[in-house]
């Protein structure tokens, strides 16, 4: 009888423990990424602005949510952007990848003058107020739907996807009103930046285009602050952008920042998986 009483008490206690489930961490998009893993920041914009790595909400400014490449996406116009207060451990990155989807809003231009897709702000007292950004130069020129002029800025070095007398380096189709995937991958070992459009490396560039600091530089994000998606990084440090700096008129989805150099196969997987 004593054994049966002990067994019964154990089963009763086990049943009680099974009912004490932990509360849900929240119904938000997550990615396969172990603690301290390579994915440092991830905003899926699946109906709200949330960094799924640390469950930190962004501050929406004139932003709505529409059908995206996967689930929902953020949609912003001339006055729209999202401010995230931190990019977590991305500031310690030496190698990195920034990847996301963009879609220009219908027949409208991506933005007047320079339209910022994102901006990684910095607390360093420099005029750009940013350690890294991507902007599109599109004032409504019809040719931009076929070939988009863009500039990627990294630690005071500019990589310009523009038309020159020698070569047209503009990015194909990314502002044609359809969803397109962009990835910017930096390898510290070679100090080179590789650009991917829709899962494939963009190669219509001069041989030395991706060299950072003459192939001898290391990136430094130690003073970086928050990141702004859909606008310049100034908003994340309480500054007013310069008058020529505009916001991206369109949708952005699946915004990821890795502290590693993704391989070509990994970038292709993001594209084919609509991630």
TrEMBL record:
Keyword field: Disulfide bond, Lectin, Signal
Gene3D superfamilies: 2.60.120.200
LamG-like jellyroll fold domain segment(s): 94-265
InterPro entries: ConA-like_dom_sf, LamG-like
Swiss-Prot/TrEMBL GO biological process terms: carbohydrate metabolic process
Pfam families in UniProt: Laminin_G_3 (PF13385)
Residue spans crossing the bilayer: none
Protein name, UniProt field: Concanavalin A-like lectin/glucanases superfamily protein
Organism: Cnuella takakiae
